Amino acid sequence: MIARVNICLPLYQPWRQLQHEVLNFDAEMVFWSCLFFLWLRVSSANAGEWSAKMPESVVGLSGSCVLIPCTFSYPANGKTYTEFTGIWYHEYSTVVYHTDTSKIIDSFKGRTSLIGDLHQNNCSLNISSLSNSDAGSFVFRIEIKDLNKYSYGEKVSISVKETPENPTVSVEEEVTSGKPVNATCAVSHSCPSDLPRVTWSHGGKQSSTSQPQNHGQWKLTYYSLTFTPSREDHNKLLICSAEFNGKNVTGHKTLKVKYPPYNVSVVTKPSVKENDSVELSCSSDSNPPANSYQWFSLNGTMLAKSPTYKLERVSRHTEAISCTAFNTEGKNCSGPQKMNVLYPPYNVSVVTKHSVKENDSVELSCSSDSNPPANSYQWFSLNGTMLAKSPTYKLERVSRHTEAISCTAFNTEGKNSSGPRKLNILYPPEIKSESSCMSKILTVCVCIVDSNPPSEVKWFGPDSSKSFSSTSIKQNESLTIFTLQGWLGFPETILCFANNSLGSSSLTLEAPQNGLIYIVVASAFAVVLVCILMCVVRRHCRNRAVQQTVMKNKQTQMKTTQHKLDLENKEEERSDGGFYTNSHVYVNSVGDKRLLSSDRALEDEVVYANT
Predict the structure, then answer these.
(1) 51-161 under CATH 3.30.70.141, yes or no
(2) In this structure, what are the phi and psi dihedrals at residue 209, rounded to the nearest 5 degrees?
(3) Is 243 left (phi over 0), alpha (psi -120 to 50) or beta?
(4) Residue 462 needs a FRET pair 20 to 30 A away by CA distance; which of 70, 178, 521, 565 works?
(5) Under 8 Å between Cβ of 482 and 337
(6) Which pLDDT value is given to residue 532?
(7) Which CATH class is domain 168-255?
(8) How far is Cα 454 from Cα 280, in angstroms, rounded to an integer?
(9) Contacts of 150 (CB under 8 A, 6+ apart)
């Protein structure tokens, strides 16, 4: 043993210096390091079935953990061993893991753990809170009670990365709007016990699965997202973000979403002059692009099947037009598009209050239908004199005699004028001096009233408690003619009283008395009386003639009946004279009674007819 130590000491002079400068190792650690080198020198001759499998290198992320996968074998020769001591060294000398934790160097205490089970030949080591100083080579040593102790010659080199790898996003090349789709985000990491926090830029249902890669050095965790894309997602990035202890990395994929036409619109010039032609085109947002189009009028009539449509001689009355765009995913329609047709002023008119009181002021405005709107105006009197150049014009102290006014509107396309506008001036009644009464056959009084609004008129005699209603009323613009007619008893003076909502006025008229009217009335009365008497006489004569005609007819009938009776009596006398006589007398007597009764009935009929 002494010889071995002498041989070992020269080899470990650098390590002793390192002990004093950096690690301050104790003498026991140096001794074990010396033994480690001695065993390595004889490992090729004495290893036999001693072997270990581990990757040549492992990459870990700074601040995370790293896993060194490791398996080992030893010459059991059919025997079972139960006590194992596993030791990991950093740079061949620093104990980073030991079954006896007191032997672990301070800088690795609490950061290393044996993940594998030595009884199952698993020597995998986990190092947490990885830092740049942990980089370097690591070797494994096994000590088996009742068998041997062996340091394996295989080593693994750990490198430390400051930045994690970017995730890899996978999704279908083309997806369809409204149909669910699945995307995955593959995240590489070295520490299964400390997985990164993964987030997606799109909402949806998330899940994750892990699987080892690269001989177990790294694990790939697949984070899945199931979502329903929309047209707004087209050409947008689907981003997967992974956070490793405050360090963020991202991966992305550009989404290609198929969807039917949206935002369909009719595109044309901003404006077109009336009577010009214009070409319209149908625009839409769709993927794939629209491949067919249809054009429709406002009432739904199809006009064309083409990407563009030409309108000839447009006017301000041209109806709105719409288009429909189609692609493989569906169709959609634009709203009706009204052309912006430029035209000069039309329907020019003077606009003001419905009415204005006399002596008040009033403002007039000039209205027109034009595109673009009128930008200048002129005002004119009825004789053509220009009054102002402004959109409005103010008239001071208007009266019923104020003349009509017109305006002219101008825009970039031309000009047009209104018709003369007469103001509706309100004023109280004024009874004209032409009002008067005259008498000929009748007495006629006329009251002429000028007012706005029209007036009501009442007539009063000397007794003001009694009023008369007009016989006739005639309207002529602001003038109203009220007429009163009278016969006998017409008063010598009569008052015409006119009023409206603004005031009242009255005028007393003299009614001239004329004696001719009494003569005319008496003559008319006599004529009427004579006519009545003549009618009575004529009717009486007509009734007497009818009565005489009826009496003559009755007498003729009686004579014929008597003659027949006489003939019958003669025949009976021949056969039985006495009975015949009696019968004749009886018959005569009966016949007289019938005659008398018939005469009375006739008289009654005549009297009834007369009545």
Answers:
(1) no
(2) -140, 150
(3) beta
(4) 521
(5) no
(6) 76
(7) mainly beta
(8) 58
(9) 39, 43, 47, 50, 74, 141, 142, 143, 144
Domain ranges of the chain: 51-161, 168-255, 269-338, 342-423, 427-515
C-alpha to C-alpha distance for 87 and 142, rounded to whole angstroms: 6
Cα–Cα distance measured from residue 472 to residue 401, given in angstroms and rounded to the nearest whole number = 28
Q: What does the pLDDT read at residue 576? A: 41
The predicted pLDDT at position 544 comes to: 63
Q: State the pLDDT at residue 526.
A: 57
Residues 443 and 437: beta-carbon distance below 8 Å: yes
The CATH code of the domain at 427-515 is 2.60.40.10
How is residue 116 written in tokens? 């594998």
DSSP secondary structure string for all residues of 506-569: EEEEE----THHHHHHHHHHHHHHHHHHHHHHHHHHHHHHHHHHHHHHHHHHHHHHHHHHHHHH
Pair of tokens at residue 57: 């290198």
Hey, what CATH topology would domain 342-423 get? Immunoglobulin-like (2.60.40)
525 CB-near residues (< 8 Å, 6+ apart): none
The tokens of 173 are what? 């090349």
Q: Residue 164 gets which letter from DSSP?
A: P
Burial class (CB in 10 A: 0-12, 13-18, 19+), 127: buried
**φ/ψ (deg, to 5) at 445:** -115, 135
Q: What's residue 441's pLDDT?
A: 79
DSSP 254-279: E--EEEEEEEEEEE--S-EETT--EE
126 contacts 193 by C-beta, under 8 angstroms:
yes
The pLDDT value given to residue 563 = 62
- Quickly count: other Cβ atoms within 10 Å of residue 100's Cβ: 9
Whether a cis peptide bond, with omega within 30° of 0, leads into 10 is no
Q: Which of 587, 589, 592 is nearest to 572 (CA)?
A: 587
Sign of CA dihedral 60, 61, 63, 67: negative
SS3 128: coil
Confirm if 361 and 394 have CB atoms less than 8 A apart. Answer: yes
> Quick check: do 51-161 and 269-338 share a fold?
yes
Per-residue pLDDT at 172? 93
pLDDT of residue 504: 96
* pLDDT at residue 540 in the model: 64
Q: Under a CB-based contact definition with an 8 Å cutoff, are residues 282 and 335 in contact?
A: no
Task: Give the residue ranges of the chain where pLDDT is below 50.
Answer: 1-48, 517, 521, 572-611
Give yes or no for a contact between 346 and 416, defined as CB atoms under 8 angstroms apart.
Answer: yes
Please say whether the structural domain 269-338 has been given the CATH code 2.60.130.10.
no
**Residue tagged 């006495």 (tokens):** 578
- The candidate with the shortest Cα–Cα distance to 368, out of 314, 318, 410, 315, is 410
